[in-house]
User: Fold these one by one.
Assistant:
Number 1:
Amino acid sequence: MFGKHKRLHFIARRLSTHELTRLRERDLQLEPQNLLAESPDERSTPYFLGYYSPSGIQLALEKYGIFKMLKKKGFDGFEMVIDTRDPYRHRFALYCDHTVDENTLLAEVVLKRRFVTLCPPFPSSIHGRAYEFLQVEWLVLQNPRKSFRPDRPRLPGQKFPGLGMGALVLEILLIMCWRLRLAGLLNVPEYYHNAQMYAQEFCFIDPDREGKLKALERDLYKNYGLATSSWAIELGCVEENGKPYEWQSGEMVVPLNRDLKNFFKSKAYRHSVEETKKRHRYELNPGCWQKRRQKLPEGVLL
């Protein structure tokens, strides 16, 4: 069920429902926004995703060693902010230095539970069936104390360099899916580089988008690297089959449900992906790139 971080799986099996859902006195203290709410319906639930108490989240992060890893990176004075006022979208953020502002933000994630009805473009046993996923609407992992370097340049959408803990956080999100008995983890990557980095674990539900991503990897990523490829797409300097190309995202998932796993492994899905990959060629327009790269934001060292 789980990937590289088997230690987390071992720990997760030993964390009980009682430990993760137990409300302590500090969890029940009313937040300022709750005191100002006009009705009970506007008040936030103490449970993140309808399951985790704030104390439960803190316990899990301690057991998984997240705070210990961050301390090794030089951070301390952690502050958790949990916002559950929106009944459909819950936000968790972690700050350092006992300060909550944009310059101490280490991690932020916005999650929701979402049903998706799948309609593949070919006959499939999952056609027309609805599955409930944990959707990542927003995810930031950053080190506000570091600067970008030539070997790790700024990517579109980035304010600070990454924390280097993406694989670990992905595993924790998958554990949450397992514990909540959801079909898998879902996200809609905003930028090309997000999709490329997710591609080791995620697949686009639409085989056409998956095939295009693999063609982009073949033609751009392997020739120019992640940063140049992503900025070239962002600046409109990439052509698809000889025409201007604009990044088009879609739903990517890591399946935990058995039928979904079989769908992505099926001959029909893999054949459709390969056919799309063969039909598409991507090229970086050198004239456009030389002209527009001069307008790259500060910190993009290409």
Note: The two ends are 39 Å apart (CA to CA).
Number 2:
Amino acid sequence: MTIFPWHETQWALFQKRKAAHQLPHALLFSGVEGIGKRQFADQLIQSVLCENPNEQGIACSVCKHCRLIQATSHPDLKIVEPEEKGKAIKIDQIRELTHFVNQTPQLGAYKFILITKAEQMNESAANAFLKTLEEPAGQSIIILITNRLMSLLATIRSRCQIVSFPIPETKMALTWLAQQNIQQQNLELLLCLAQGAPLRVLEFIEQDELSFRNSLFEQFAGLTKENSDFIAIADKWAKLNLNQILMYLMSWTSDMIKLKEGSGLAHIVHQDMVASLKQISEPYHVKNLFAFWEALKKAYQMIHEQLNPNSQLLIENLLIQWKKL
């Protein structure tokens, strides 16, 4: 087990707090997806519970505590996450924490509650969780992980110590990626698409994300043709990852706005598509491109607020708006 190089500052801080027995009662880890927040939380929990951590606080991986954690059966660790991908964390899952919090640790000095995708707690679950935060947790330490800090209730944020995980410097990220024995020539482009998150780049490579992006862009570019069938494209896109599609549409529209306004190429995300983006955006006024970007942003917020929109209808309305620009 090793610490990512871009986490070393946070790791050193927590090791000092652990040594001084000053670990906060409630922590909220915030940062973009793919930055390694969950890995850091796992390493921190194992470091605290481990019987024989090394000088840097890295867990030994072989003691009883470490083996129980690896087997996901440690009695002093409770993990809460959405039961299905993209679904909400429900109130029943949060209610189960009450009994756990009130128990004394069975094997060590602390109990840990780890809540991943914390922003996906539904309203009832979030309100129930507030009670757990408000009541003294004794020897419990709660860690929440979120990709969207402001989607959490302000009352939850205010009761936690927020730990921000910024993206690493580009040079550090590219150096680390180059050390992962991957066969990929477009690391800089992938890192840009991943918002600077190195672990997301690894996912992109495994999923052949560039091929997906290029195919999606061809279909998007085809919408500028007079005989384009946007209903057929909407039908095809509705079967794909809606979040992914909206992110790309927002990113391309943002790049087109920047190109229209004369921003330097350094500010363009899809630098390999500059010529095509200029050609697509040529007939459009920048004001209309801004209006389309706002519509995309509204749609993106809608799906992240657990409103479960009709994907087909949502995409059709967006593409109709694009055709009318």
Note: Residues 134 and 159 are 8 Å apart (CA to CA).
Number 3:
Amino acid sequence: MADLQPMIEDLMQLGYSEYEARVYLALLRKPEVSGYEVSKQSGVPRSKVYEVLEGLEAEGVVLAMSVDETTLYRPIPHQALIQSHREDTLSRLDRLQRRLQDLPEGDDEHSFFALTGGEMIMARIRDLLASAQHTVFLSAWPEEFSQLRSLVDEARGRGVTAFSLVYDDARDGFGRQDDEDIFYHTVTPMQHRQVETIGRWLLVSVDNTEVVLGQFRSAGEVALCARNRGLAFLIAQTVAHDITAMEFLAALGSQDAWSLLDEGAQKVLRRVQQAAAFGGEDTPGEPR
């Protein structure tokens, strides 16, 4: 026999009382019975069951009929109940969205909030990409970029300038390959270690106004979201800088570019990269 408690709790989340949920489920299992039988099947006291049945009848959830001077009750099918609530919820959400759009937006240049969970984070980024009007700068790993590429393409189709940098060690080489505005970054041992330590990162800057800094790791996904021009500008510049570096490395070759530096410059840059990546740990440096 099915465990009724989860279904009772779900119905209560829809606004029904526990007694109403019990009565409806009892009628689904045994329809066209008297109030006395409903009380027996549902566990709702006889002193309350008729009041509950009348309330459900008024809501259209239960139908009453008179047979041989006895009132019998039957429920509407569960499909009809679910569809009714689905339509009502969608109607409420549409109405709320229209009303919220009419609210004047505050000019908050320092709005920050955190999100947890990959679905919530990706939903926020999808909303930003869908609303982009001028520019998008995005830095991601293939796992996340594959979920966002279609929206990036849609934004570009609207005339938005959108550049993406993808860390992908499955690609053979740096730079552009199949799209002039998507740049690929091969993954160095240092970056593999960064992923092991902090997870995959995801940076998005939209219109130099909205920004998301995401962290995707086995322990969970977190992101800082902000409506802040200064931070959005910095993220856009960071992605633009990485893309520029990738184009130079693609033209020169990674090792050839590194060899252009003298020993002192190589040592300094290795120290810079190590400090930024691992808090100054003594890790063998590698050219980006």
Note: Residues 149 and 164 are 9 Å apart (CA to CA).
Number 4:
Amino acid sequence: MLEVKNLVFHPIDNGVEKSIIEDISFTLEDGEMLVITGPNGGGKSTMAKLLMGIEKPDGGQIFLDGEDITGFSIADRANAGIGFGFQQPPRFKGMTVERMLSLAAGEELSDKVCCDLLSNVGLCAREYIKREIDNTLSGGEMKRIEIASVLAKKHKLFVFDEPEAGIDLWSFSMLVKQFEQLHQNKKESIILISHQERIIQMADRIMVIKDGKIDKLGIREQVFPGLMCHETGCRCQNPACS
């Protein structure tokens, strides 16, 4: 189980303190899928980076299965069981896709396993397995390769920051199927940061972050109708829309 207590992040920018994350608390049960959504610039991606240790909080604590991981490095958190997918994946010139998948898995993977991982995210595996992870790959290709690398290893918790970004419609459908299958197994907890309605509809619970705070948090049936009405400017009398 993931437990976040009173998390605060106030970075200094040009000598001025900014409030990016302000007193956020929530829990995520084993096997649960939480989708985090909300306005751009509200703190969603920062929240994900705090969970992975890319950014360090100025206050609060993060627990994974009862262990305080607040002071853990990125590597320590990965070893503890957190897998992370960047919104904009890094590139590694000189490293092949096959090598990256093996490094991510923590063991040497066969060509078949690598091909299966790539095929599951909508890539023609034989065309990519020996390619380098450099600027010859498009943003969408990079995104799918990184998602495949995160899924190459079992984790306690998966965190994906806008996994749909830069991906075509056909590949997006395959990606959704991957997340659905992962969620059906109920072996890992999943946090997805997304604006996509189809991904939001998959959630057990939805968190809306606005201005660095939790604006709404609840089960899909409670939050989703009001969220969609807000996006479309609905003036219905549904209590969820208030």
Note: The chain has a mean pLDDT of 88.
